[in-house]
Write a structure and sequence with these properties.
By secondary structure, this protein is an alpha/beta fold. It is 29% helix and 22% strand. The chain folds into three domains: 250 residues, Metallo-dependent phosphatases (Purple Acid Phosphatase, chain A, domain 2); 81 residues, no CATH class; 80 residues, no CATH class. Strand 16, helix 5 and strand 17 form a beta-alpha-beta unit. The relative contact order is 0.09.
């Protein structure tokens, strides 16, 4: 048995924040959806699963005629190829009385799960035979655990749970989001062999076990929608052996690539060095005919700090964009000046005084420095997200506080120089 797992297609996305390229992005998203049908037909899948957010909006009136025609064409092609499709509405396109799923006409081979109550559909033509269990979002703010409503059976069939949800204790999840929240433990022991999940835009495996065979996975969004969706996107081809062994294959069919190049510059790096790095990065992507939006994040202490204004950087970006055939390119400059504390340590101003105090504290040793820093800043201010001194031993606390102080001085020196320049 082979099936295709897709989710978070978001047809009808307008890309309003990028009006200059919005139309091309909309076309690429629609073509990615059409490619989904091509993959399903060419790989001879038994059925297609869509785990929510097929549409960006909940009403058909918000969809262009082009998008509606693409949807009709894709499902008609799958239906004519004898490939049934199963759709679980998500939080963007919930099943409501006046919603998009009620307003549009669907081929006979398309099953829309239309209730928050569990529904099961048996497939007798596959080997092994399968049963798909699903529930629908019935509002844009489903805060209840939908996974708990789904349960399979130990009957020799392959059981699939199709649901749009947020597994909150999964490392790749939106942990603070309350959209159909559940925990990893909720997915275990429910008689489900494969959880076809939607909502998280990055592909990833939530749970995987061999005995008994069980996989819970997000396939990610079909096509990236912005810089929050970096790298290749697509769908997952799942093959199931007679002994219920599960094989997964990522199919990167998304026609839009959102990419981030992070480059730390040295003191002597210039614009030529930046342009060379961008060219090499784009060449390494192997884009083919895919559209690409590239953000280049520049950091580091460099002589380029303050050397070019915003308009000049935009011109550099436009030249590279056109040369490399990119849809968009932007520079995110987080550059810092090339400075040394020695240049300011003897100066009769506040920065000089801070540097002298800092050197006195650090010269006295970690113990004295840590105590002094705690007196000045207080215990609460010494905690950063990546570490908590309450969970460290005394030696680790000393090193940690020294890093805090070094970082604070770095920021102060930069701020002073920026104000002065």
């Amino acid at each position: 048995m082979r099936f295709l797992h897709a989710a978070d297609i978001h047809l009808g996305t307008t890309f309003r924040s990028r009006p200059e390229v919005g139309r091309r992005l909309q076309d690429a998203l629609r073509l990615s959806f059409e490619d989904l049908a091509t993959v399903a037909v060419e790989r001879q899948v038994d059925f297609v699963l869509i785990a929510g957010d097929l549409f960006e909006a909940s009403r058909a009136e918000n969809l262009s005629l082009t998008v509606r025609a693409a949807v009709a064409g894709v499902f008609k092609r799958l239906d004519e190829a004898g490939i049934p499709t199963f759709v679980a509405p998500g939080n963007h396109d919930p099943m409501t009385p006046a919603g998009v799923y009620r307003e549009m006409t669907w081929p006979e081979g398309v099953t829309i799960f239309d209730s928050a109550g569990p529904r099961s559909v048996a497939i007798e033509t596959t080997s092994p035979k399968a049963t798909i269990h699903s529930v629908a979002h019935t509002s844009a703010a489903t805060t209840t655990n939908l996974v708990e409503r789904i349960r399979g059976d130990d009957d020799g069939r392959f059981h699939i749970g199709l649901v749009h949800c947020n597994v909150q204790d999964y490392a790749g999840s939106s942990q603070d989001e309350n959209y159909a929240p559940c925990q990893r433990s909720d997915l275990v022991g429910r008689g489900i062999h494969y959880w076809a999940l939607g909502h998280i835009h990055a592909p990833g495996v939530v749970i995987e076990s061999e005995h008994p065979p069980m996989v819970a996975a997000y396939c990610g969004c079909l096509c990236g929608l912005g810089y929050g969706d970096l790298g290749p996107r697509g769908c997952t081809l799942v093959t199931v052996d007679e002994d219920l062994t599960i094989h997964r294959e990522f199919a990167p069919i998304g026609r839009i690539r959102w990419e981030l190049l992070e480059r730390e510059l040295g003191p002597e790096d210039d614009v030529d060095a930046v342009q060379t790095a961008v060219r090499r990065h784009v060449e390494s992507l192997g884009l083919g005919d895919r559209l690409c939006c590239l953000r280049v994040r520049l950091t580091g202490r460099t002589r380029l700090f303050g050397r070019h204004d915003d308009e000049e950087w935009r011109e550099h970006a436009e030249v590279l964009r056109d040369e490399l055939g990119l849809l968009d390119l932007e520079f995110d400059r987080q550059l810092r000046p090339v400075v040394s504390m020695d240049d300011y340590a003897d100066q009769p101003h506040i920065l000089g005084e801070l540097i002298r105090t800092y050197r006195e504290m650090t010269a006295a040793g970690e113990g004295v420095e840590a105590s002094a820093l705690a007196d000045v800043l207080g215990e609460e201010s010494l905690r950063f997200p990546e570490a908590d001194p309450r969970k460290m031993d005394a030696e680790e606390v000393g090193r940690y506080r020294r890093r805090v102080l070094d970082r604070a001085m770095d920021v102060l020196v930069d701020a002073f120089v920026r104000e002065s320049s």
